[in-house]
Amino acid sequence: MSGAQGSQRRSGSFPYRGGCGIIKRFFTRNTWVLLLLFLMCRHPVLAAEGPGGYPGTARTAREILWKGVTSGGVNSGSVAVLDKGRIVFSEGYGPADRAEGRLIDGKTRFNIGSTSKMFAAVSVLLLVDEGKIGLDDPVVKYLQEFEMKDPRHKDITVRMLFNHSSGLPGSTFDFGYRPEGDFHEILLKTMKDSVLKHDPGAMGIYCNDGFTLAEMIVERVSDQKYIDFLAERIFRPLEMNHTGESVGLNGGPVAEFYDPDGKKYPHEVVGALGAGGLSSTAEDLCRFADSFMPSGRQILSPSALAEILKVQPTPFAASLKGQALLEAFGWDYQNLPDFLKLGFRVYGKSGGTLFYTTNLQLLPSEGMAVAVIYSGAGKAEEATYEIMKALMVDRGLPVPREKSVAKLVKPEPMAQDVARSLDFFANTTGFYRVHADKKKGSLKVYPASPAGAETVLSLVYNDGFFHDPSSGWRYYVAVSDEGTFLFLSEAERYGADIPVFQQIETMKNPREMSVEMDGTLWLVRNASPFTIFTDSLLVRSSVPQNLSGYVNFSGPKRVIDPDFVAMAATGFRDQSSLKLFRRDGKVRAKVMEFEYSGEDAADLLKEGTTLVAIGPEGENEWLGAVSEAILSFRYTDGSRIIVFQGPGVPPIFDSIVDTGEVYVPEGSFIFLAGSPGDLIYIAAR
Predict the structure, then answer these.
(1) Closest Cα partner for 118 from 275, 270, 242?
(2) Cis peptide preceding 450, ω within 30 of 0
(3) Residue 363 CB contacts under 8 Å (≥ 6 apart), including other chains
(4) φ, ψ of residue 351 in degrees (nearest 5)
(5) Angle between helices 209-222 and 117-129 (to 10 degrees)
(6) Element containing residue 608 per DSSP (H, E)
(7) What is the rounded CA–CA span in Å between residue 626 and residue 647?
């Protein structure tokens, strides 16, 4: 589930660009006019009910959402606008189901991803109101079974789960096409072998697992299932009649997801409810937003309401030149500088799954809220930002001005303390080398491997900042107890400072691992047959050039001993350690909840028919294609077949949506999954 800081834990399995642009080719201009009129009839605009109407809000919303649907990347979308307790504008855009001709309306549900986190925040505060939870109590007071390899976990408080300062590694869950597994048990089991990224409370780094712990606390204290608690204490009181578990569990009128080729995917199941497992509508999200308004339908006490709306600072923010993200109780932000200058405090919470994108933005002091949800990778946050500004104009309120274009800056020599002998950086994706020319005032960032790779950033120094001439963005180096970082200053839309790179120490006595890690291909062995995260199934590890003692395997890692590597980029979300172990005489790697074997675990695909049986432990099986072939399959219902050309690229065949024969190039790998005893036949010619 995405948030304001960084990307999702894993990227999607297929590109979104061009998504609904496919639809555009099949409609004439007149057809689009008729479709728009039909949509408006089915999903009426309510703006006329308000005094004077909301013409700018309506125009802005329509332009933005129709652009998303007709320009590609978005299948469909929905928007709702709340003003002083009333939904004054609500429309749907595009088809909810292409084959059925069903269009988006106010009751169509979308998965809302991390926007679900705000329901966990309200749930805990409802129990705080009853005196059953103390925000500054340690988590272990309520969850005695929560254990970590790192003893500092006992210092994590309930509050730290919500301002993302717990120090937990990241995200221990999976998305799927069917409900499967107990996410609470998976998290507790994974945490026993994990360590913290930093001292509890030190800095805010986006973290999904904290909200799974919060969900568990709510269940333990209330003695109810989490979803039942939400229904009784939040959904029903706020008349959120179209909100519940993810679309893969609830069914009903759902906004379907299609990939750029027009393939319709099964409904997405997100089992981690507190972190991102709810579905809703734009109108219901506005009803939820109304509960935070001074004149709204409040379900929290005044003290709890003040808590969820106040700044939740961490010591790390003192090292920044500007403001930090995530210094809030569950929100991505509550301190957008452009609005603060006008006296307005705007709150926002984004949400992203692999299939859906959501954003909820509210201005409590004025009783205003905007919710936008897309099927596909739409820019929901940009949409709510622009629609909110249009709403403010319709209300006669001042709005932030557009930023003026700045002139190119001239480089000037760097002071020694600015460069700080930067050599290597890391972030969520890997390792980077830095070349700083202090005299010329230039700083360039390259991938650590391969040699000769093109620059990632080319910056010039002037007046304390590193400037990017191509984008106009500014960066600076900040030093704190948590490390040395290169920050993006006043990030677009947020106005906050965001870390983009962390300095990596060059070790004097680096250690090596017990097996070769540079270029090694790893095959997952314990993935669910119904997983959506296909890009986690096949991973290639690497070793950065001229930086001994480090490995990149699902993120940058530092070698501690021959069979264990720890998190290297501790200032970023979704990091993990790695442990090597032996099973049946062969090396395996464990990264969070996933286990991997080397590529020698894949049997060679032979011409003719091959029968693969899923073993008694239900482990994934693999085949390697030594030559090109055309394959066809027969398999037990519930089994899964995915064909990969290599790591980091979308599959060329996935039985979850594909049928028939497939051409398989030489060097491809075939992932086979199912329940114990399932039989899969592969015919190769």
Answers:
(1) 275
(2) yes
(3) 339, 344, 345, 346, 347, 369, 388, 392
(4) -155, 135
(5) 40
(6) strand 608-613
(7) 17
Query: Strands of 640-644's sheet, edge to edge?
Result: 603-604, 621-624, 669-673, 640-644, 653-654
Angle at 228 between CA 222 and CA 229, to 5 degrees: 40
Angstrom distance (rounded) from CA 98 to CA 665? 33
Residue 645 φ then ψ, to 5°: -85, -20
What is the average pLDDT score of the chain? Answer: 90
Q: Measure Cα distances from 609 to 606, 613, 634, 644, 656 in Å.
A: 8, 13, 10, 20, 22
SS in 3 state form for 384-422?
A: HHHHHHHHHHHCCCCCCCCCCCCCCCCCCCCCHHHHCCC
Determine the straight-line distance between the first and last CA of the chain, rounded to whole angstroms: 41
Condensed to tens digits (0 to 9), the pLDDT of residues 304-348 reads 999 999 999 999 999 999 989 899 999 999 988 889 999 999 999
Lowest mean pLDDT of 12-16, 252-256, 590-594, 611-615, name the range: 12-16
Q: Are 209 and 171 in contact (CB under 8 A)?
A: yes
Q: Report pLDDT digits (tens) over 538-565.
A: 999 999 988 999 999 999 999 999 999 9
CA 606 – CA 624 distance, rounded (Å): 9
Would you state the structure tokens that stand for residue 353, as one six-digit string? 């799954």
Cβ partners under 8 Å of residue 124, min gap 6: 133, 135, 158, 162, 214, 217, 218
Beta-strand pair 629-635/483-489: unpaired
pLDDT (mean) for 507-514: 92
Cβ within 8 Å of residue 484, ≥6 positions away: 420, 422, 477, 478, 502, 503
pTM of the model: 0.91
Alpha helix locations (H) across 163-279? 183-191, 209-222, 226-230, 247-250, 273-276
Residue pair 78/109 in contact by the 8 Å Cβ criterion: no
- List the structure tokens of 371: 């919710």
Tokens of 35: 């479709």
Two tokens at 410? 């001239």
What pLDDT digit, counting tens, does each position of 152-195 carry? 999 999 999 999 999 999 898 778 999 888 889 999 999 998 99
Residue 630 pairs in a beta bridge with 663
The pair of structure tokens assigned to 682 is 């592969």
Distance of CA 574 to the CA centre of its chain: 10
